[in-house]
Each structure stands twice: as C-alpha cells, then as structure tokens.
Amino acid sequence: MVKQALVRVLSGLRGDRFFQILLAGLLVLAFVSPAPLTSYPSLVDGATLAALTGLLLLTKGLELSGVLHHLGHRLVEAMPSERAVALSLVLAAAGLSTVLTNDVALFVVVPLTLGVCRIAPLPATRLIVFEALAVNAGSALTPIGNPQNLFLWQLAKVSFGEFVWHQLPLVGLLMLALVGLTCAAFRGREIRVAPGEHASLDRRLLALSLALYVPFLVAADHGHAGWAVGVLLVLFVGLRPRAVLDLDWGLLLIFTLMFIDLRLLAQLPAVKAAMAGLDLHDPLNLYLASIGASQLISNVPAAIALAEYADNWRVLAYGVNVGGFGFMVGSLANLIALRMSGDARAWRSFHAYAVPALVVAAVLGAWLLGLAGRG
Length: 375
Prior knowledge:
Elements: H1 2-14, H2 17-32, H3 40-43, H4 46-65, H5 67-78, H6 82-100, H7 102-119, H8 124-139, H9 147-156, H10 160-185, H11 203-221, H12 225-239, H13 241-245, H14 249-267, H15 269-276, H16 283-297, H17 299-306, H18 313-322, H19 332-341, H20 346-374
Helix pairs in contact: 2-14, 4-7, 4-11, 4-12, 5-7, 6-7, 6-8, 6-10, 7-8, 7-19, 8-10, 8-19, 8-20, 9-17, 9-18, 10-20, 11-12, 16-17, 16-18, 17-18, 18-20
C-alpha cells in the first residue's frame, strides 16, 4: 500500500508543470544565489508546512468518512439551480475566509464541492476556481483572514475595527464584482442528483476528524503546529492509515520548493537593488510594486519584503491583497485550490478568470486609494 502511494505521488509530479518549473528554478537559483546549499532547509517555513499537513490530513479524514457526500446531497436538494449552488459555495468560501483564513476556508469548501459534483452534473473545476477567487476577496477584510493581513496588522498597531474599516470598501466592491461574475459564469438550469447509492457514514472517523480540528487550529495558531501534526499522524496511522497514505504529499513537496525558490530569489543582490530603487515612499509606486511582487513571489513574502522599504500599511494592504489575483503564485491559497481540484488543467481555467479579475481589482483599489488621498 505504501509503495502504491509513492508511485501515485511520483506519477502525479511527473505530469505537474508547476512542479517542473519550480524544480528547474531551483537548479538555476542554486548556481546564481550566494546562499549555500546547507542553508536551504532554513528557507522552508516549517510551521506553515506543518499546519498545511495537518489540515490536509483532517480534511482527508472528513472526506473518507462520507460526511461530505451527505452534505452534498442536502445542498443539491435545497438549491434550485446550478447558479444557486455556485453562489452558495462562493459566498460560503468568502465568509469562512474572513474568520478561518483563506487556506482553512478552502479545506472546508473544496472537498464539499467535489462531493457535490460527484452526485450532480456541475462544473467542478470552475466552481473551485471561483472559490479561490472568493477566499482571496473575502480574506482581505479582516486582520485574521490571511497571513499578509495578520503581518500588516501587527506592523501597523491599529485596532481590529480600524483595519476592517479600511479594507471594507475594497472587499465590498470585489464581492459585488464576484457575485456578478458568478451569476454570469454559471447557468440557471435545474440540477438533479445523479442516480446512485448514498455513501456509508464512518462515524468514528468523522468524530475523530471533527474533534481534532479546533484543537489543531488553536495549537497551530500558538506556534505548536509541529508537535500537533505529529500527534495527528500518530492517531491516523493507528486508526485510519489510508488517510495518511492518500494525503497529497506532492502538494507538500511543491510548497517546500516554493519556499526555497522564492526566498532565494528575494535574496539576490539584483532583486534587493531593484527594490531599493523603486521609490516606495510614493503611494502609487508602492501599490503597483506590491501587486507586481505578489505575482512573482506570492503576496505573503511580498508584504514582508516591501515592509522593509515602506511604512504605508494602508496602501500595502490593498496592494498585496489585490495581488492575490492574477497568476496562481499570487496567493498560496490559489495553489491549494488548484491542487485539491484534481484537474491537471485547472490552472488554465483559473488564469482565464483570475487575470481579468486582477485588472478589475487593481483598478478598483487604485480608485479607492485615490479617493482616500483627496479626502
């Protein structure tokens, strides 16, 4: 069984273009970066990787328990059309992301979406793409919605309410645009549950996964993700080893490569010199730089890097949250959603919607910042 899981992971990585790009990038950066090879493990954010592993494992437990299949049936029976189902899932993803962070929201909504699509003829990849857009928009509202907001909130030393009030106009406009796009992208046709038997419910596995979810999140939030995921692995290996074997280990390897590649890139003298010459004290330059940097190194590292050169947290918060749209590397949540979709071509559909969304979001953000400047 272990051998089969290993073969499945390696087979998936051989056909994964993003993994191949990251691997090729690592080989190039190893030659041009001054950082020694022995320093590469320290470039990996172990806490993030441990938290991601735990969330993947708990989500896999919920999936194998059969509860998502049951919830999917109820959702389809309650919603009159494909468009209604899409709006429900998109709004749920956005709402959850404001309090559970964008990544955790996806770990709840994407498996549910896949369960819904197994029992009803719905466009799974498109739904997941819109959920990725939704968590990028929704998570921008609160300081705890995503890692970059949490970092900027701590840096700015403002109240929770002040941060939300600043972000509210941008998020409000983004959500209005997203709801309109969702209505246009999904049909109003009636949907019916496909014939087939209901999956059995593994109540023991469901109880285990649900009971461990909140304690794991609390432990991870307090900086104890490492030992917390160790406890999870021991419990699941003992009780449900299939959940561990079926984990998306390829995604964890991709995240490891991303951390190394992006941080090696940020350390290059040419990159540092370019950052220093951007005149980031100018709000427009900072806004555009934060969007552009997010497309290259993802919005969390972009926020951390740019904060070294500028102290305008309001502009930076708009820029890095807008930067989550566009290319899939703009936000780690994008990568998680696309990997969880199970569709090797999901990145095409994602960019078809996310790149135009970036343009719209960038214009809206610039407009709002311009209004604030005149006020």
